[in-house]
Amino acid sequence: MRDHGGDIDRARARFGAGDWIDLSTGINRTPWPAGPLSGHALHALPTAADLTRLRQAAAGWFGCNPALVLPVAGASAAIQLLPHVLPRGRAAVLSPTYNEHAASLRAAGWRVDEPRTIDALHGAGLAVIVNPNNPDGRNWTPDKIRALASRVGHLIVDESFADPRPDLSVAEVLPENATVLRSFGKFWGLAGLRLGFVIAQPPVARQLAERAGPWPLSGPAIQIGTAALADTAWTRATITWLAEAALHLDQTLGKAGARLVGGTHLFRLYDLPGAAQMQERLASNHIWSRTFPYNPRWLRLGLPARDEFARLHAALGQRTMLT
User: Is the pTM of this model over 0.90?
Assistant: First the structure.
């Protein structure tokens, strides 16, 4: 098994059951308020019209042509499928990053390098870049990403954490040789729906759709995703809240001796000598965080919901400041 956040079962097995706050992922802890599901969503097979409405809602948020949008069962589904529809060769994955990219490519028979600088991706048959990056939050402007596309055979841009930063996306003006991945579950806080999107030129999208099968999404995912993507008032308010929560989390961990080294508006990455000990301290208060086997000083935390900050402050022996 590869190392991931969201392994709350491991936390429960070691520290006991109870009311856990899972901050080991970058999933918004204040989700979009999904309402009741229709009978159609629950009882009928999804129709072409259902998927068209979902594509249009997604394209409205991404700022792209709906014809380029392919809904999938989470961005992770596309990560597993893309290595099988692109011509095999040498791939370069900008690292350190989400480990499923390199792993899925290797499993599909690709030769994979994992360079540490964007310029080292030049010349690759396939280049993969996560923007903003997970776990360190590095990010690149659309102009930089499009310039990279001109130097590689094909470019995959994983924008799973880009929703709070739409200015970073290349979806609006997509290079001919680029494919963009977008997550739904992280920003909207509904990861259990397993919904994501691929923004790609028609030849790539057609091959992905064939491999995904005739009904790649559930009716509930389509109904909820369509409504949530069109809720611009919630989106604007959430972007503002996440920016505020990120600053407050930085202040909180700073008082506990951690130094901010990166992150996005969905998670923060800190450096501290006793990262493993801090994880245990938080876990003893049923707050789960993320550590990294390749860097024992790193600790990553998702953003708590407003009413969860008090538990975090108490676990760190701090007075609650957020109201």
Answer: yes
Cα radius of gyration (the chain): 20
Cβ 123 vs Cβ 152: under 8 Å = yes
H-state helical runs in the chain:
8-15, 39-43, 48-62, 75-85, 100-107, 142-149, 202-212, 219-229, 232-255, 275-283, 309-315
3-state SS, one letter per residue, for 206-228? HHHHHHHCCCCCCHHHHHHHHHH
Residues 173/142, Cβ–Cβ less than 8 Å: yes
Strands 178-183 and 196-199: antiparallel
Residues 84, 91: Cα–Cα separation, whole Å: 13
Q: How far is CA 161 from CA 132, 158, 187, 230, in A?
A: 6, 8, 7, 18
> CB of 263 within 8 A of CB of 137?
yes
Q: What pLDDT sits at residue 62?
A: 98
Residues (pLDDT < 50) of the chain are: none
Domains of the chain (ranges plus CATH)?
8-30+233-315 (3.90.1150.10), 39-230 (3.40.640.10)
Measure the CA angle with vertex 57, ends 56 and 62; round to 5°.
Answer: 95
Q: How far is Cα 20 from Cα 41, in angstroms, rounded to an integer? A: 31
Q: What is the pLDDT of residue 2?
A: 66
- Return the structure tokens found at 56: 């249009």
Got the DSSP string for 43-68?
Answer: HSPPPHHHHHHHHHHHHHHHTS-GGG
Number of H helices, E strands in the chain: 11, 13
What tens digit of pLDDT does each residue of 228-271 get?
Answer: 999 999 999 999 999 999 999 999 999 999 999 999 999 999 99
User: Residue 31 burial by CB count (10 A; 0-12/13-18/19+): exposed, middle or buried?
Assistant: middle
**Is the CB of residue 91 less than 8 Å from the CB of residue 111?**
yes
